[in-house]
Amino acid sequence: MVLPAGDRPGADATQALGALWDYRVYARRWVFLLVLSLLSFSNATLWLSFAPVADMIAHHFLLSTEQINWLSRVYLVASIPSGVVAIWVLDSVGLRWATIVCAWLNFVGSVFRTLPFMVGGIQDPFAFLMGGQSLCALAQTLVIFSPAKLAALWFPEHQRATANMIGTMSNPLGILVANLLSPALVKKEEDIPMMLGIYIIPAGITCLLATTCLLESVPPTPPSARAIHSTSEKFLDGLKLEFIGLCGALFIVFGVLGALVLSLYVDRTKLFTEAVKIGFCLTSVVCVAFALVSQLQGQTLALAAICSLLGLFGFAVAPIAMELAVECSFPVGEGAAAGLIFVLGQAEGVLIMVLLTALTVRRAEPSVSTCQDGQGPLDWQVSMLLMAGLCTLFSCFLVLFFHTPYRRLQAEASASCSIQEDMSPATVDREPHPAATP
User: Considering the entire predicted model, what is its pTM?
Assistant: First the structure.
């Protein structure tokens, strides 16, 4: 069918019409998501690989516990300035090259950490450990910001939240594995080189996949209208000896399960705001329960259940909140929206950690537990109550004052409606019949 020249759709409508006819998805989007998920998983394992065995690492390298703690803290500190750079890289260089650079930083950092064992005569092993962790920390912001960008560029509208969930939840899954794997591998100081070598394997595989399998930043044809504009002891028995590790594992496992169910639900209903508000409110309730129950003795089952609920309600809402941020900040790019939220969140996390730690004191009364250094445990009562209060305050503020339209979905709906109007019969048959011409 050919329309008269004067009655053809305008240039914008034609481009939109062509985009509508050509909307399609490609199977290789799952390959991209797999690489990004593996990269996020590997980066998270490198982040906390030292923390579960900090005592042996410190003793082996003649370091203080504070120095070992900084091998994890450097991720938080480095993410604040590098987050701004990561936003620029995602929008300027493209998702493919950003992922490749991130994979190489992650791999080189994992290798750099092993140099004190590979090269003899090193006088300052901490410099190599910190250097490797710093490189991995620089990679973290890129990989954290990327799932929202990948979901927008490669996945159709009904799969975006699910894709974002998979990419985002790979990071806490890596944290879980690191907390379980490091104690299982390092039974004595001689096992430390083996542990560091094992963590290189996923980093190396991911780097190889990213370099060889990712061929383009965007698909040849967009999947949606928005994408056009987007740029000794048994393992389990050993785990039970460390109750904090078990609670962390429950937190991650239930968080991943909750995120899976919630993302599938939100993909169908588009109730982003409602899901986030309910999730934060339930998290506040659980946080208050944790602050109260943690002060009681002999409540191990209750604490384990609370940690599970904290992951189910709190951790599960993270990818949905990221998608909501993208929706309400449109037409700001996905990488910029997710990146700013992450940077601000990391900065807030550093401030809260410093504040809560400063409020702790040594227990004056006898305690049922002791630390490995022989000192009594810290009293976190004030810190936990403050944390519960802050969580409740922020949740109330969110529920009462956060109301936003879904600008990205509205833009896609408007584009589809305008295209249908341009192709309606009334528009096509506007030219008058020759018999009606005087």
Answer: 0.59
- The Cβ of residue 250 has, within 10 Å, a number of other Cβ atoms equal to 21
Question: Among 71, 45, 323, which Cα is nearest to 173's?
Answer: 45
Q: Kindly report, residue by residue over 141-159, the tens digit of the pLDDT.
A: 888 878 888 888 888 877 8
Measured between alpha carbons, how far is residue 131 from residues 86, 217, 243, 259 in Å? 19, 30, 32, 34
Per-residue buried b or exposed e for 89-105, using 16+ beta carbons within 10 Å of the residue's own CB: bbbeebbeebbbbbbbb
309-357 residue pLDDT tens: 888 888 778 778 877 887 888 777 666 676 677 677 767 776 777 787 7
In DSSP notation, 79-108 reads HHHHHHHHHHHHHHT-HHHHHHHHHHHHHH
> 374 CB contacts (<8 Å, ≥6 apart)?
none
Helix ranges restricted to H, 270-380: 272-293, 300-310, 318-329, 334-358
Q: Which residues contact 56 (CB under 8 A, 6 or more apart)?
A: 186, 188, 189, 192
Q: Which of 33, 36, 255 is nearest to 139 (CA)?
A: 36
Q: Is 221 left (phi over 0), alpha (psi -120 to 50) or beta?
A: beta
With the CA atoms of 254, 256, 259 and 264 taken in that order, what torsion angle do they form, in degrees rounded to the nearest 10? -110
Residues near 83 by beta carbon (within 8 Å), at least 6 away in sequence: 141, 145, 339, 340, 342, 343, 346
Residue located via tokens 């050919």: 2
Find, among 342, 288, 337, the residue nearest to 310 by Cα.
288
The single-letter DSSP state of residue 299 is -
The two three-digit tokens of residue 86, written as one number: 């990561």
* Under-70 pLDDT residues of the chain: 1-22, 120-121, 225-241, 243-246, 248-249, 333-336, 338-339, 342, 346, 350, 363-378, 419-438
First-to-last C-alpha distance (Å) of the chain:
27
Burial of 153 (C-beta count, 10 Å sphere; 0-12/13-18/19+): buried
Residues forming beta bridges with residue 362, ordered by sequence position: 378
Bridge partners (DSSP) of residue 417 are none
